[in-house]
Write a structure and sequence with these properties.
Elements lengths: L7 H8 L5 E6 L5 H8 L3 E8 L2 H13 L6 E5 L13 E7 L1 H10 L9 E6 L3 H10 L2 E11 L2 E10 L11 H7 L1 H6 L2 H22 L5 H21 L6 H4 L4
Helix pairs in contact: 4-5, 6-9, 8-9
């Protein structure tokens, strides 16, 4: 991967960046994404933000090597600290956990007034982002799921709007967990992801079964059973009786 050829994951993120955007790529690593967008005339201005010194220096080196210093500003800082209010109208955050992405957005909410679009790619726990969007009046307008190098990724795209609109035709608890748009498609990668998740949850449940009884253990068991039940209903699979057979309620 380089500034000319992105990974499939980052290519998918890139396609959701509106033309002529002023983008802030948070956790930009080598600045591949903003550099690629700038070289292809897709953005008018870019900020590559990095919290760690090594990736910051790598991003700075790449931007200079590509002759993009007039278009892309490489900055070192934590999350949205690297931008000033009004500087960006599109924020991209890719390759982090969903909880971390949600906390970055929460901690930098005052920087989002001028932002029209969020393009977010969590490695895990996308539910944390979907919940943050609902809580903060951002409307999820699109999602994609893909597999690359034996890893499954979700891309979430949001704009200011009606945060509950995507969940009008699906139970919100289910939609938040698996994604309301991904639920509509139920493509093969989606099914693979949730079969694997259920397998992991069932393993966790068995571990909890053998743990010393406690209120906390029972609560965790109930949480696991609830998630499995929701996904079983989505997949309508042959193991659909598992949660009812293991109910701890």
């Amino acid at each position: 991967m380089n500034t000319d050829k992105l990974s499939v994951r980052l290519e998918t993120v890139a396609k959701y960046v509106p033309l002529d955007s002023r983008i802030a790529d948070i956790g930009s690593d080598h600045a591949y994404l903003p550099s690629y967008l700038a070289k292809n005339g897709r953005i008018s201005y870019g900020i590559a933000g990095e919290v760690a010194k090594g990736p910051y220096q790598s991003a700075e080196k790449n931007v200079m090597a590509e002759g993009l210093t007039e278009v892309i500003s490489v900055r070192m800082g934590d999350g949205l600290e690297v931008i000033q209010p009004g500087e960006a109208d599109c924020i991209t955050i890719a390759g982090m956990g969903g909880s971390l992405i949600a906390s970055i957005l929460e901690n930098g909410k005052e920087k989002l007034a001028s932002v029209r679009r969020l393009v977010l790619q969590p490695n895990i726990n996308a539910i944390a982002i979907r919940q943050w969007l609902v809580d903060n009046d951002w409307e999820l307008i699109g999602e994609e799921i893909l597999e690359e190098d034996n890893k499954i990724y979700e891309i979430l795209v949001a704009e200011k709007g009606d945060p509950l609109k995507p969940y009008r035709d699906v139970p919100i608890e289910t939609g938040l967990l698996v994604g309301p748009f991904l639920l509509q498609g139920k493509e093969q990668t989606f099914k693979k992801k949730w079969f694997l998740e259920m397998k992991n949850w069932k393993r966790i449940y068995e571990q909890l079964e053998s743990a010393a009884p406690s209120v906390e253990t029972e609560q965790k068991k109930q949480e696991v059973v609830k998630k499995i039940s929701l996904v079983e209903e989505v997949l309508d699979n042959e193991e659909s009786q598992w949660s009812s057979n293991h109910s701890t309620f």
